[in-house]
Design brief:
430 residues, mainly alpha
């Protein structure tokens, strides 16, 4: 008896095909991934972004009101008034900056959750928020530290360049203006150059558990040869959401002006005008939060897809993912994490081979005769065998028709004693 293997269904498709991705695939799947798990991707990002925004705005407003309220007890023409005013401005600005960094750190955590979700969606797995947070939690502080270090480095560089420009402006105003323009253009070039190089560091921290220094090195290595495509994806996504924000802000601004005219037709800008301004501002902020949440999810999804594509090209990650999917669908348990397999290995993808077979087209060109072959219609001379025996040579002219048997002459009949009645001799004759 032959045991036939059990039937196994086809593997479930993920959000991307498991082979190196094209530019259009990365850009298109960055937007379509929202449909895979919208409760985690969009819902979680929107809730976290809204809460962090409300906390930052509320804290800045409360501290600003508390600090500026002291000016009511001081005469405006006194020296203390100017000092309290400057101190209140500094406290409010510093508070807004610190809370803005905290909100950015929370946004990095949201990005980490999205990266983990997209990595599982690539192999057709949909995990709840608790399971995704369980994977991100061990490296959350490392992820926040990377974001803070990057922000601090950019801030120090900006402060140093701004100080040089200001100092040069006091000495030579025209040279200061030229230096400021060149510094602004240089900052744009530096930002466009560093963004693709450092884009994959958060994904390396989350999916590989890399250190901050190791994640920067990994991102730098993986983006080799993929700089322009990575930069194109980043710039296009930012341009799309920037244009979308402008298209939404302009109609709301016009609607706010019309609402103010309806509430105050006589031109009174009192309470009714303030109500119209507040309603318009609140609506604009709500729409802005929604757009920012979607933009954060799309950018994080694009980052993950670029990371997977670069590892497919450099390290053969697609083979590890295919092996993982096949073994999982076959019923194997306790499978290793495919994103930890082959980290840092060098993979050379084989080049496509030409097809084997006759060349296309008809008629086919005649193949050359082998060396020593007889002419057309002839026969080759017999070759001796190693033992010295040579088979007999065939006839010079091959038979044109199959041989027939020879003609056999007729055989005479056998003698017999019987004769015809007229031929018998008469016994009474003399």
């Amino acid at each position: 008896m032959t045991a036939y293997p059990a039937w196994t269904p086809a593997s479930r498709p993920g959000i991307i095909p498991l082979h190196p991705l094209s530019f259009g695939t990365i850009l298109g799947r960055s937007f379509s991934a929202l449909r895979q798990n919208p409760r985690v991707l969009l819902g979680f990002a929107l809730v976290v972004q809204t809460l962090s925004y409300l906390v930052v705005v509320g804290a800045v407003v409360a501290i600003g009101v508390a600090s500026f309220s002291r000016l009511d007890t001081v005469p405006e023409d006194s020296d203390a008034y100017a000092q309290i005013f400057a101190g209140s401005v500094a406290i409010t600005v510093i508070t807004g900056f610190v809370l803005g960094l905290a909100a950015g750190a929370i946004g990095v955590v949201v990005q980490g959750v999205v990266v983990a979700e997209v990595a599982h969606a690539a192999v057709a797995e949909q995990l709840p928020l608790r399971a995704l947070w369980r994977r991100v939690r061990p490296v959350a502080w490392r992820l926040i530290g990377y974001a803070l270090l990057l922000s601090a480095a950019l801030l120090v560089l900006f402060a140093a360049v701004a100080g040089v420009v200001v100092a040069l402006s006091f000495a030579a105003p025209i040279a200061g203006i030229v230096m400021g323009v060149l510094a602004f253009l240089g900052a744009i070039v530096l930002l466009l150059w560093l963004s693709p190089k450092l884009l994959l560091a958060p994904a390396a921290i989350i999916l590989e558990g890399a250190t901050i220094r190791g994640a920067v090195a990994r991102s730098w290595i993986l983006t080799r040869g993929r700089f322009w495509s990575t930069l194109g994806v980043i710039v296009l996504i930012q341009m799309i959401f920037g244009a979308l924000a402008q298209l939404i802000a302009i109609p709301f601004s016009i609607a706010g002006s019309l609402l103010g005219g309806i509430l105050a037709p006589t031109g009174d800008t009192g309470v009714t005008g303030s109500i119209g301004l507040i309603v318009t501002s609140v609506l604009v902020q709500i729409i802005s939060l929604l757009i920012q949440s979607v933009a954060l999810v799309v950018q994080s999804t694009a980052t993950t897809l670029i990371y997977i594509d670069c590892r497919m090209r450099h390290e053969g990650l697609d083979l590890d993912l295919l092996t993982y999917v096949e073994r999982r669908d076959a019923g194997h348990a306790a499978l290793p994490d495919p994103y930890l397999e082959g980290v840092g290995r060098r993979f050379a993808r084989p080049l496509p081979q030409p097809p084997v077979g006759p060349p296309p087209g008809y008629p086919f060109p005649p193949s050359p005769a082998p060396t020593g072959a007889p002419p057309f219609g002839g026969y080759a001379a017999p070759q001796p065998t190693p033992g010295g025996y040579a088979p007999p040579a065939p006839s010079a002219v091959p038979p044109t028709s199959p041989p027939y048997p020879r003609a056999v002459p007729p055989v005479p009949p056998a003698p017999t004693d019987w004769t015809a009645p007229g031929d018998r001799p008469d016994p009474d004759a003399p």
